[in-house]
Amino acid sequence: MHVAFVHRRGFGQFAALAAHLAQAGNEVSLITETIDQKIPSVRVVRHRAESGPRANPDMARHMGTPDHHARIGHRVAETFDAMGRQGLVPDIVVGHIGWGSMMFLKDVLPQVPALGYCEFFYRSEGADIGFAPDDRADLETRKRLRLRNIAQLLSLEAIEAGISPTHWQRSLYPADAQGRISVCHEGVDTARFRPDPTTSVRLSDGRVLGAGGSPIVTFVARP
């Protein structure tokens, strides 16, 4: 089976899965702007990087980011089209939908099933903005955030299913889309992220705190 991953910044969240599939004998490709690591037996196809949102006085207000996402989507579609002419049509595409990369996938690969990584849907209340009592987004911010979701909304229409790392992240997406989004925790690499029994910290007063000692509170929020 040929599995193609799409992510702007290398393998990203797909690194462990891509490595596992490649080790199991599957054909694996990554379509990306930049590469963050090498994984044996995985084909890396880089498309031209698009510059960020452009300042254009003729462009409608807040359309810089949607325009940027559309340009990225065009690059990914062109890449899949070129791969198809070389006989490299994937059996399934798994891609991050946040930057527009999956916007035009079904226009170039209409018969290939697509799975979208649904990381974060922007909202003017209850997420990274508007979660504190004194944090209220103004009208321009609300319009900007709504337009920033254009690429994701178009991608949601074009994918068969999606995955989110947590229930909360899935809950940010429109209600009619949540039924097609499964929660799949990314996991933790416990071989890398684990307590170091040999580590210690010397405080300014000369005391040394080591692993296995008294619990340390590093932050306290006032009511």
User: How many domains make up the coordinates?
Assistant: 1
Kindly report how far apart the N and C termini lie: 54 Å
Which structural class fits the helix and strand makeup?
A: alpha/beta
CATH-level-4 superfamily name: Glycogen Phosphorylase B
Morphology call: globular
Radius of gyration: 21 Å
Approximate helicity band: 25-40%
Kindly estimate the percentage of residues that lie in beta strands according to DSSP: 15-25%
Please report the total strand number as a whole number.
Answer: 9
Largest sheet: 7 strands, parallel
Oligomer: single chain
Task: Tell me what the structure shows.
By secondary structure, the protein is of the alpha/beta class. It has a single domain, classed as Rossmann fold (3-Layer(aba) Sandwich). Helix content is 28%, strand content 17%. The protein has a 7-stranded parallel sheet with strand order 3-2-1-4-5-6-7, sandwiched between helices. The chain has a two-stranded antiparallel ribbon with strand order 8-9.
